[in-house]
């Protein structure tokens, strides 16, 4: 083992609760799953809020567990097939590292999933004037690296270089140079509504840039500065697979994904192809085909696209969706078989690539399976995420988060309440203040803004609702277990 891969930010002598394994990477895995940050994910939305659907649907924790399962399977398969030691030349591929990174990749996701991420980013940039804004991946990295300021060693997880590097899907900061590449790496393109604000996706805030550099140091000269490590690429690919397949299970179980609408779209495109009317059935998937050629010409292939449409139509539309989910053992078996068959096919198609395209990683799905994932994700985006009833709830959740940020900021700035501010919020202000460089304009305001964002991002869905109910006077219960202050 390369010792530099196993180095930690704060030295090897620090022992965390739950450190029982001999392997440093297994130690990392144990630190992640025993942390309160991981436990919180059980109450955070994946696609459908866990508070409204019971045990039927995935939350961020069960999603992370499945990503870890898929990621480890990919890593073990690639290690076995790697006869030329390409993975070693690229910096290493350890299944324990991959599993740990997969378990940690969503630690920073705020309440209400990706909707919460977008809202907090807009508030951070536009309301709180924080140049880095908010990003779920960067927040995950902040959680595992954050340092205490009272002489204690760390309140982060003090993970090894290899695992921290594997968490970095987007190994650049918001204002890094990756966005100026032509083409930019996937995720590095500027924010559509504010091109001067930096990259849309990024892996670390400016406050953690030194930690990111330390994590990436063992890979210098092996992978490009902007490129994922092999282990990060495995985790990222597994995340894509889990999203494409397991989230479809959820929307099928709750009856949201309707066979007729999906069938009409896919079959219309199969009939009309490139001549599909943009305003009618078939037009949306034709737009996807054209978008793939614009953005991912290195992989886009019309024959593979058509074959993927046909396979999804046959196995999803005529298979899984042909019978509404009724909770029976037979229905559960059908969902399990669909998920297992698709996951196995995708995992078995994955290859290790020495010289990938800029918008790819060293780990790739084969051409056929890459297109299949694009079609599955299209079905989710088109027929679930674009639904008006989902938008109704998300608009309410967005207003709740905005109101919560304002209420907490008002509490922080009330001189009469200085002694009654929640201890964690005060600690976060102090931490944020120490991170800011000398001469920062409105230093206290910046620190308070980052602290409020960190505080809100660390809540579950129900904690965010309960806290806002209390702050707005709607809750009549003085002592509650909805949140702890």
UniProtKB/TrEMBL annotation:
MF term (GO), any: dGTPase activity
Domain HD per the UniProt entry, residue ranges: 60-244
Coiled coil: none
Xref: PROSITE patterns: HD
Keywords, in A-Z order: Hydrolase
Pfam families (alphabetical): HD (PF01966), HD_assoc (PF13286)
InterPro entries: dGTPase, dGTPase-like, HD/PDEase_dom, HD_domain, PHydrolase_assoc_dom
Gene Ontology biological-process entries: dGTP catabolic process
CDD domains membership: HDc (cd00077)
Annotated protein name in UniProt: DGTPase
Native species: Paractinoplanes toevensis
Classification lineage: Bacteria, Bacillati, Actinomycetota, Actinomycetes, Micromonosporales
